[in-house]
Amino acid sequence: MFKKKVTFKILLLLIASDIFETAVHFFFKKSTLQASCGQVTDLASAAVLLKAVFLSPFLWAGLLMVVTVFVLWSLVLSKIDLSVAVPIASFSYILVPVVSVVFLHERISALRGLGVFFVLVGVILVSLSSKEKAGQIK
Amino acid sequence: MKEALLLVLFLIALTSLCDTISQLFLKSTIDALEFTPKLNFKKIFKFMIKLIAKPRLWLGLVFSLVSLCIWLVVLSKVDLNFAFSADSMHYIFIALASRFVLKEKMGSNRWWGTGLIVAGIVFVSLS
Predict the structure, then answer these.
(1) Would residue A3 count as lying in a domain?
(2) Which pTM was predicted?
(3) Which residue, of A18, A23, A47, B120, has the greatest Cβ tally within 10 A?
(4) Which residue of chain B is at minimal alpha-carbon distance from A111?
């Protein structure tokens, strides 16, 4: 019923979806930074934080990105399997740490960097297994 | 401090779970459409209209919304790169859900990859 092969077009769609996904996380983090609320300890303080966050323009920019990602992601899922699409969408594991360091001035320790590297290798392995499976089915 | 970390990890697991459920709804809705649009705006628009007319999709979106609210709370507590790395546990949920709910075939390479992702999450949590 569905094409299992990951074509160049689908790959481009996935990368575009990943870039917008990164923008989503960047804007959401910005919106919580702008809210600059106290500690979230219970449901009531969480509600206060969410109220402040929803007043931030960054959140609405993020939500606009969410809609874009939704359209792109739906297109991808209409063409390939879920267990193929999700691992290949790992591009954001490179993008998000880079954005965190460059734009949010966060620091990454060596151990955390190693962890991200492990995740990345695992994700690549999963993606390759998807390609093998796709080849067999074809 | 350790309890706070556990709480954040629990919240991240919860948001991952909600996200996985919404992905399952989305994928099964799209599968049921049996419609793969060509990449021009007219076809994509038609596809999206057909998609949002399905009630099952909105059920999935409810889970997305819950996931988003929990995610915003998580982001207020920890750095983006920590939160995003720990969120990779949703690869495990997706793998299990694909295997057991969508009945997709899983090779050994894919399980190894999933194991490495778990190891990566542990490293990130320790740092």
Answers:
(1) no
(2) 0.72
(3) B120
(4) B127
